[in-house]
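To whoever is covering the structure queue this week,

Two jobs came back overnight. Logging them here so there's a record in the thread.

Job A:
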Amino acid sequence: MSSPDLSSRPTRYTRLNPDGSGRFVRTESVPAPKATRGQSAIEWTMFGVSGLVVALALVSLYAAFSPSHRMVPNRVAEGWKQDRMNILLFGIGGESHPQHDDLADSILLVSLKPSTKQAAIVSVPRDLWVHIKGYGTHRLNYAHKVGDQGGYPGEGPGLLSDTVAGVFNQPVHAYIRIDFAAFVKLIDNLGGIDVYCQHGFYDYLFRRGFPQGWQHLDGRRALEYARFRYVIGPEGDNYSRELRQQQIINAIREKLQRMGPAQTISLLRAATTLSSATKTNLTTAQMVSLYRTFHEIKPDEIRHISLKPLTEPFEATRLGEAGEAVRTRRGGFEDLQRVESSIFSSKRQISTDDQIQFATAPPPPRSHAMPAGQ
């Protein structure tokens, strides 16, 4: 049975290529296909959505790299009106850290009451287990690092400030960030500081220590005093390190009190240029106002607070974040918020008996040029 001859059958292919040569020969007008109403609607919708996504991406990119996006809002004027300013002071390792660490190494919330010239310093555990906006629960010091990496408004200082504000239910009006290199230079520019070591201690990793008694510290030794933690006994935990850091803040304040106003303001202004990592959103005019208001503050008008009585260490087991962290003893942050809300109604130091007691330190010797402790 012979195969039927299909070459004579009119198809859309034979009409356009009747000889099978592959050449396009239009033998008749073929109307172009038209989209249905449904197809047109879908195409326009897809086009609109794609355009919107591109526009949002461009806006986000511009915002992330704009100078205003990188700035932490300065709310100091609000603090003056409310008769309370909360300034977040924190340190990072920076370039001089062996791992160029951007985690917040030490965190202090300094509160000031202009009308009564009172001050309070709260050491915030860097390992406090908190919720970080957009990133879940982590140690508090992680907020600075991820804020720098993730494009958060105000970058690392912005996210750390907002996280601390949420923990204590208090606004953060300004911040000061300093790295190790700038810390050392600042102490050296002051001619060293004097600190009373209440509990002598020895670091077994660095094989250096501090005997009990008054110590005159240059910048390098002051950094060691603030950071040593491979220590047997009470001075080996992070809570003790935090109070030693408060001692250094006090010693800097006392040194500045003995300087003239012009010299002090010049030194504070220069401090922000000691390293590329040192940064603050305080203006020079605000620094001058704060200095004039608080430069004669008395030691007994300063509260020194450790959160050791209200928190406890625990072992975090999350992959990649395993190790010791800190949590509140009763869960939630209500106890910490109560401390901050009544920060100026009491002068009692909040700490445990084995920690540094600021009120019991003996008066410093007449000479403030003691040799550095060995």
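Job B:
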Amino acid sequence: MVSIHVDHAGKLDLGKLERHLEENLAKRQPVYSVVAVIGTTEEGAVDPLVKILALRQRFQAKGLSFLVHADACWDGYFRTMLPRGPEVATDSATNMAGRDGGTDGLVPDLALRVETQEDLSALRYCDSITVDPHKAGHIPYPSGVLAYRDGRIRSQITWTAPFLSMGSTDDTSIGIYGVEGRY
């Protein structure tokens, strides 16, 4: 695992990521995955997912590909409040984006920067995503999602550990397909 520095806003430093990928390409060293944090716990920073996905396309053309995982535990829930299409509605006076306040939707306006809306909309292009609706959505714990674009990947990370079930005989646990625990 390699840590990539963040900028002063708490977002992944895209230039440093690109330099690291160039080094791996030159050494012919594979990269398994790049993780974008979509809403850090401390700062609420959203990594530039659209640019990370574009970077992957550029490196794929050079012969280096990798999975993109979005740790969207905090802000992933907000994606459900954005319009369903790829378009982003913009209020140029405030440079904020969101619904127009009309009666066409069931959710209230959501004021997010255009870049954040674009990054949230790009979640659909990730290979895997984690979302914890119990955080920003105030849904009861242990609601949470670990979603894979290709469901076959779950068999590559399947594992069991007795401490995850805490001795429970509950057969409904999906802990073998992702990290799951109980309080």
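Note for Job B: The helical segments are 14-27, 49-62, 114-121, 133-136, 162-165.

Please reply-all if you pick these up so we don't duplicate work.
Q.
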